[in-house]
Description:
mainly alpha
Amino acid sequence: MNINKTIQRLILDPTHRPFDLYAEYGCFREEIEDFLLGQRNFEDRQQKAIEIIEGILTYHGKEDLLKNLTELARIEHVIIELEARFRDHVVHALNSFILGIYINESWMAQKANCFQWKLAGLLHDVAYPAEISYSILGSLPGTLNRKAEELGFPLHRISYAARLDGLEQLLNGVNALDLIQKRVYEWGLQIKVHDEYFQMVRRGIPCHGMYTGLCVLWVLDMMYEKNNPGRRHEDVRAVMPYLSWNQEYFERDIVSACAAIFIHNLPSHCFRSAKINRERSPLAFLLRLSDELQDWERPSRQNPNGESANNFDIENEQGILTLRAIISEEKKCRMREKIFSTLDAPDIRIL
Length: 351
């Protein structure tokens, strides 16, 4: 029982596909095998994850986005020492990406687009420092306000809000929330994107999913504007001759990836009217599922090594995607609740 070995076997299975399965996803079989099965400490593993992600993104000319992930790794090294409840999101990003490939290829009848999955799977947590900053600094006003009450000045209060202003405004007067809302409706979901976003802003309690979706869209919008200022719906080559900046790719692939990221961490109440359906929105389905299932090798100060991959396994059992996990029943219940309250997924089991 070892989920990394299970995923690795799919890579080597020559009967699954007549060519290297991972080539479509912009990475090499050998480096993925080494990442999954190689023995190294967590810091080295995190650096290895960054190198692999860099190679995948650079191939598609999106290397500027790597800076977000690299900075996230640096921040998390410090944060984990300060707050035991915070877990890694860099190794998690690559593990989620690889797990998503396994699910996409072995279980999904309607597969998610490979390029869209690269962006969504690898970058879905890059704005997590916004949540971290609030969790740490947001405790300070409460302490100060209690002191004010103790000293007899209950109305002498302060507050703290973590927010990123201006992310919804793209170039040429385009509103990012409008783009995401249109895609979300196309997926058959009833989420009110503007309402959810501005409620978050008013509360001052950041949601890393919403912020990440907008951050990635904001950066890529500038990259497309720089390389295709006329936003032409035709093959436009810039610095790298093998890379096209056709506006069609932005409207189809970039917006889809960012919309999937935007909704991947929304609370369950956003999906009461309509859950994510894998046929209508395979990318959003795959991201939410992979993100929730990927719970091994995520260290914190309380558990420096994270849960062992030996405690997890996954299999497509006659159309039923089954995750076996030697973890507490409480953790399993939380995992089931997050999955079944948001995904239309009667054929998933967590044992």
